[in-house]
Design brief:
Blueprint: H1 3-12, E1 15-20, E2 23-28, H2 36-41, E3 88-89, E4 98-105, H3 111-119, E5 124-128, H4 130-133, H5 137-143, E6 149-152, H6 167-182, E7 188-189, H7 203-215, E8 220-222, E9 226-229, E10 232-235, E11 245-249, H8 254-268, E12 271-272
Parallel strand pairs: 3-8, 4-5, 4-11, 4-12, 5-6, 7-8, 9-11
Antiparallel strand pairs: 1-2, 9-10
Bound molecules: zinc ion.
Zinc ion binds next to β4.
Length: 280
């Protein structure tokens, strides 16, 4: 049993907190959908190497504190939860014929991509970096209208393992801002570059990330096992498979990439599902 699997098992024993539009309901955690153990069983038989965000196709948000960074009337009380270890999910273990479309950052608000997900009713889980939204909240509201959700990809896209990154600002400010903008506080965090998500993360760093994130409502650290980049795809398991979490970015090539993955899915009898249906 490798380190990540141990973490998953431990995390599954903790308590989770589900927040919907400000309501706070404690529920028992269900680790059944955490698929990190499934990665071990995959043909690669090893922990996934970091890939996908080391060479972002577009410029990263360069501004730290935009207008949304200041405390304001949108500030609301964040849910309190027991500080606990959070599982890292690379792939969802499920018998359902589903895969997951996750789209990061938010730099390019591409009309064709929005039209494609809207027309085809595609549930997209979007991990927004606050600095990349640039005030265009409505674009992402529409983008997630077909069963998707807005989740957390930090304020400014700094690496959470740098040691100098203010974790509560990077992780918890978006919880408050997105909660106010969208009426739902995110439950998932995707760390920029995946840093902090891999089993190689220093224990001290991982504990600091988990403590901060779980204290403001994050229940899952979501990684990925497939990536679309500049129109082409890389799959850890060779091709699109059930339970895959596919990473996209909001770039000009997004619409084409979404069409491509939907073609692959159709050939395999898979359909995209909301990640929130499987990571509760
Ligand atoms: Zn990113």
């Amino acid at each position: 049993m490798n380190q990540r699997r141990r973490i998953s098992v431990i995390a599954a024993a903790g308590a989770a907190v589900v927040v919907t539009a400000g309501a706070l309901v404690a529920v028992a955690a269900n680790g059944a959908t955490d698929g990190s153990a499934d990665v071990n069983a995959a043909s690669t038989a090893q922990a996934p190497e970091p890939f996908g965000e080391s060479d972002l196709p577009t410029g990263e948000p360069n501004s730290g504190a935009g207008p949304d960074a200041a405390a304001g009337p949108e500030e609301r009380a964040l849910p309190l939860s027991k500080k606990r270890k959070l599982a890292r999910t690379f792939v969802v273990k499920t018998k359902d014929p589903v895969f997951f479309i996750t789209i990061d950052d938010g730099n390019t608000k591409n009309a064709a991509a929005l039209k494609y997900v809207t027309t085809n009713r595609i549930p997209a889980t979007v991990f927004l970096t606050n600095a990349a939204v640039a005030g265009q909240w409505n674009y992402f509201r529409k983008f997630t209208a077909a069963g998707g959700t807005v989740e957390n990809h930090t304020m400014t896209h700094k690496s959470l393992t740098s040691g100098s990154t203010p974790l509560s600002y990077e992780i918890c400010r978006p919880q408050a801002i997105y909660g106010a903008k969208y009426g739902r506080i995110p439950t998932m965090l995707r760390p920029p570059y995946g840093n902090g998500g891999y089993a190689t993360t220093a224990k001290k760093t991982r504990k600091a990330i988990d403590a901060t994130a779980s204290a403001c409502g994050v229940q899952h650290i979501v990684m990925w096992n497939a990536v679309a980049e500049k129109g082409s795809f890389r799959f850890i398991r060779g091709s699109l498979k059930r339970g895959d979490i596919v990473l996209f970015h909001f770039t000009p090539s997004l619409a084409g990439e979404l069409k491509s993955v939907m073609r692959m899915a159709a050939k395999k009898g898979l359909h995209p599902a909301p990640l929130t249906d499987y990571l509760k």
